[in-house]
Amino acid sequence: MAEQIPLYPVRSAAAAASGKRAAYFSAAGPGPGAERSSRYQLEDESAHLDEMPLMMSEEGFENDESDYHKLPRARIMRRKRGLEWFVCGGLKFLCTSCCDWLINICQRKKELKARTVWLGYPEKCEEKHPRNSIKNQKYNVFTFIPGVLYEQFKFFLNLYFLVVSCSQFVPALKIGYLYTYWAPLGFVLAVTIMREAIDEFRRFQRDKEVNSQLYSKLTVRGKVQVKSSDIQVGDLIIVEKNQRIPSDMVFLRTSEKAGSCFIRTDQLDGETDWKLKVAVSCTQRLPALGDLFSINAYVYAQKPQLDIHSFEGTFTREDSDPPIHESLSIENTLWASTVVASGTIIGVVIYTGKETRSVMNTSNPKNKVGLLDLELNQLTKALFLALVALSVVMVTLQGFSGPWYRSLFRFLLLFSYIIPISLRVNLDMGKAAYGWMIMKDENIPGTVVRTSTIPEELGRLVYLLTDKTGTLTRNEMVFKRLHLGTVSYGTDTMDEIQNQLMNSYSQTQPQASGNNASSTPPRKAQSSAPKVRKSVSSRVHEAVKAVALCHNVTPVYEARGAAGETEFTEADQDFSDDNRTYQASSPDEVALVQWTESVGLTLVNRDLTSMQLRTPSGQILTYCILQTFPFTSESKRMGVIVRDESTAEITFYMKGADVAMSTVVQYNDWLEEECGNMAREGLRTLVVAKRALTDEQYQDFENRYNQAKLSIHDRTLKVAAVVESLEREMELLCLTGVEDQLQTDVRPTLEMLRNAGLKIWMLTGDKLETATCIAKSSHLVSRTQDTHVFRPVTSRGEAHLELNAFRRKHDCALVISGDSLEVCLKYYEHEFVELACQCPAVVCCRCAPTQKAHIVKLLQQHTGRRTCAIGDGGNDVSMIQAADCGIGIEGKAVFSSVFYFASVPLYQGFLMVGYATVYTMFPVFSLVLDQDVKPEMAMLYPELYKDLTKGRSLSCKTFLVWVLISIYQGGILMFGALVLFESEFVHVVAISFTALVLTELLMVALTVRTWHWLMAVAELLSLGCYVASLAFLNQYFDVPFIMTMTFVWKVSAITVVSCLPLYILKYLKRKLSPPSYSKLSS
Questions:
Q1: Of these residues, 248, 467, 588, 932, which one is catalytic?
Q2: Binding site annotation covers 852?
Q3: Is 467 a catalytic residue?
Q4: Which residues contact 655 (CB under 8 A, 6 or more apart)?
Q5: Is 875 annotated as a binding residue?
Q6: Is 846 annotated as a binding residue?
Q7: How does pLDDT run across 379-415, given as a tens digit for each residue?
């Protein structure tokens, strides 16, 4: 229909033409999704942009098109098509395609369709719908063991050990006892399976708690209690105040007399504003709840979709004559994971389980792998290549005689301990220890580690993506400042406003009581009198009254003993101040009304047509609400026209952002400056103005306004034009400043993280103005930095021009909306990410949950850096799951991980098992207690964190250094044992293995930076275990020989030669080239 055609802001002639075309084609689509897709398709006129790349320099912007420089995107694509891409990327693509095909064959997704839902009769549903259960588990009973084993053996390190262990079942390849290989591998798998089982059980318990929540279900026989997981499509569910809505429903009835209620959606879209929902008028008018079963009615709902801001459906009652058809929109819906904020509501379930909006906007959990595991996997492959090369050399020296391939494989097995399984054991145990230490940290009490596989990732983060509401802010608004132009009031001078307001109303009260009925003559006299400068007291009076009237706040009083839908009269309700709460679509509005109450002017009642204020003296002032103009993101202001019942004066009040109000108020020389001052303090500003109207002026406006609302063509434009006719030469009353309370220590924490080298992005579902204000007040954007607000773009051409304009900015924070981000990523993904990553801070507002996850994945793909996501609501789950490290709480931790290994392929049976576990595990494991600097020093100098993100502690250089050390020590141990060998070969085993264990313990001590008493215990415990086991290992050691001084001095000599040079080198390195942390420690 023509009246459904949307209109878009017109910026130029070309834009106007494009907008008309977009509006025309979008009208043909069935909904907002089609509107967006059709808008993208209308890019024929910008096809030439394929050959016009974004400029790379400021000079290119000022010259002609020939000065544009091409981005390396084409070269990148050409490079990917080389031999490396064909072998690696092509193989990966082939495997991925095959896996996707198999998954699609095994799990065919059911096509989503529109549905007809009969009220209270789920058995009438034509199709089977999913259960209303929440499942965050990664496995089930049948897939747990295969899934965990697959996640382990997809890494080369574990797969290598599995192949080596399985080879021992082949008699021709067997070179030792089975437990020599299977005991360490079994220990690693047992620890991993146990850890995954614990994590999976915790997820199961959380899901069970949510699915077991009880709700009241309305049936023909009355109310019955049902679990959330047992709710079906078509059920009539009763949801009480402050209760979570279990599924997507259509709003049928409420206990509120106005037929509407407020819901909190912060767990769905991240917005703190309460949403006003309206019940279906046909069912709201029914006398009682039971009448819902006496009517024959159904709801037709569109197929399930992602968009949480739109809905199309109809309500039909067939048993009336004629049948009643009522259109349903987003204001008639109650989405799952939202919370009822007022009254008791009854709804009919239309979507359940994985078809609800909240679940569809949540991505499936993935198995996260730490960067350390990936690096070790690559290093393991390098060691394996060295092992193969060494085996080939040995076979070559034999001259490839006989079955050389069998000899090659046996050499591979003999050298297999070059890749130490003890590394896997210590790594898993170290991660578990780090997780336990985080949960026991006294500085972050209550922290729970949900997964124990990636705690070391906290030391490698580069990008930190955070939610705003509840994460950076407390979602608590506090009124801070009132500015009248010549005088400003802060929190310490509010008592002056209270006194002036009391004096003002005490003077006007006798006049009001004397002239109760008339006001037109005085108003005309006032308008004809010359303007005089108002006193401060009268200006305060007008400002406070305007703030108390211009809002959408409703005071709510809890009824005594309220239950169900029983309606109470005013006599049954407690109208005391303690029992009153305010409800509004924005916490800013509530903060303003609470402030007027604190200074003496209290909002005591409001309905759709009137509101009542109580003055400091207790007098009740009644105002009739003639018109209300709600706030929109386009207008950035809201207004109300009221009539004072005592004087019959009609006044138009309006408030909004300074950018929208500066053009409609009378000339002044202070508004812009003071708005800037408040913004720098982190306050959210609102400009308040008024205009007095005569009866003739209002009647003329009302006629034009109603006529515009009835027009079929360009309705929105005509209505806006009529309202704008009132918004002229308005009297500026005041400027208000409200502060969104930040979480404790947010500012120093963000500054510390920034100094540590982390780049912080804020992803929020809130409005652009709110997000920008919080970014400044939290010091996410420093005071010295400029902020570039990315203008709304809807086409490829607009995105092209806006990106070029943004490229000219330097050291500038970026603020962009979700819709504009979607357009930029559609056409200029690589260029946009390249520009955004250069910004000191990025703020993305109006982000959908899936968009947040998409941004995380883009950073991972384009930068290859580790990302961390922090959030507090259900709308942040996708982002947290997509990030390399997800945090649902605030916390700080510094980690360091050092692993040492040495391998000699000589020892059999229990010696290798003991070396891989008991003899060496405790000292290496105790390294989790090591600290390069104290926590206080790390917090004082966050720049130290940059060294961790560079990954120098486990780079190719350090890996080669440790390999050389291992070769040196292994050569000394073997060569020394053979040189000092006298009579029996068993003495070689005793001397070399004892020297090996002592070398291991000394090398761990060499690695330690800060000693902990448990480290010394671990060293002594391992040494004690080895000495005690000598008495039981007669088949490996000559016990009488071990008791001689010859054994002692030979072992001591070999150990000193293998370790002393390394201690000397470490001492010289610390003296000549000390690390950064040692400079601070000294």
A1: 467
A2: yes
A3: yes
A4: 546, 547, 550, 637, 638, 639, 661, 686, 687, 688, 689, 736
A5: yes
A6: yes
A7: 888 888 888 888 888 888 877 777 777 888 888 877 7
